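thread: overnight batch results

M.L. [08:02]
morning all. the overnight job finished for the chain we discussed friday. pasting input first so we're all looking at the same thing
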Amino acid sequence: MLKLFNSLSNALEVFEPLEAGKVKMYVCGPTVYDHAHLGHARCYITWDVLYRYLKFSGYDVTYCRNVTDVDDKILKKAAEQGVDPSAVTEEFYTSFDNSMKALNCLKPDIEPFATKTIGEMIKITKTLIDKGFAYVSDGDVYFGVKKYPRYGALSKQPIEDLMAGARVEANVEERGKKSSPLDFALWKKDEKFGYDSPWGVGRPGWHIECSAMARKFLGSQIDIHAGGADLTFPHHENEIAQSNCANDCEFVKYWLHNGFVTVNKEKMSKSLGNFLTVDELLKTYDSNTIRFFILTNHYRMPVEFNEEALEGAKAGVKRLIAAGQKGEEINLKVDAAFKLELEAVYSFREAMNADMNTSKALAVLFSLTFSGAEERAEIVSMRANTLRTLGSVLGFDFTKKEIMLSDEDLTLIKEREKAREEKNWAKSDEIRDIFQARGIVLKDSKDGTIWEAQ
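M.L. [08:03]
and the structure it wrote out:
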């Protein structure tokens, strides 16, 4: 029985979808103005694992993850580079998509772009105005937070405290337009980069984008809405207010949030300048290692980034992948291995059903890596097959990587073989280390040098 921690109720709850056997899942996607970093990897690997596990558990899952391609940050980047905003979004969406592929994250079933869903945003905004929850002010449209008494329920903050903080943060321009400092923009006047609307040329506020895309592609009510803990307030809080009021129903049944990646106890973020991009990280560590590093921690807890932890993950995942690659895929049910398989699957499910306890699930995978030299090949293969099956639910890639060597590489290997013949161990080790730094292991056999991914 799957239990998940619902941020709205602040409690573990038994997962029961709105429609039996089907799951509608929405995850806040990237704002495409820069490269994805390790904090993004933590978020999207976490929800990739949930998606995989729900499917493994037999649910018919529809996973929607949006792309924000209209935003203040995008316009700022475009102005800095002297290009059209579409050039920025195309470049960094491609970069994001490639990073997710490199991390072995499954593609969502639906990946809507904000700029393609403007009509739905205008429709919801108009509904909120007609119902008295929103108002127009000089071409902008604001949601009146005081009209929604439950505001603050997700972030567990009394509206009076939020109001006091908003007064301090509100800028001079907004103060003149808003009825209350806590009110947030549904539509922004923008005659240069805007779209036609009943209130003049403008563009959507960030919060309305997710409400509109979720409703268009998944419906007025969804089972799971997930994202990083930094989105709890104000983004998700605002989504709840505008969606519940527009749709006359409870927008989301389960709100899920993953913890931050921290560096020296501070959140990894672009604004702090302490981030490491996925591409930079993949130059040193493969996707399995990064995924292992993230999954050794519970998804709701912060993860402290450091080289030592990643090196430990590298060693651990190497053992898992090696064990999973033993033997062949077989259907033969050997008694001892079949019993082990049942126990492993049961223990794995038990761990994952406890609010996705991936560290315990990894322990189950490690229990499958032990095999004695005397064991029959069928048992070893069965154990490896179980490891591959369960490991793939966590998103590990067990395929053997083909290493393509250049002519220069092959010449270097010949030099190393000659050095070994001459017992020049220093030069032999030096060449071996060159390859090892690139993630390639050289092994000596009676037929010459062989190589494989580290």
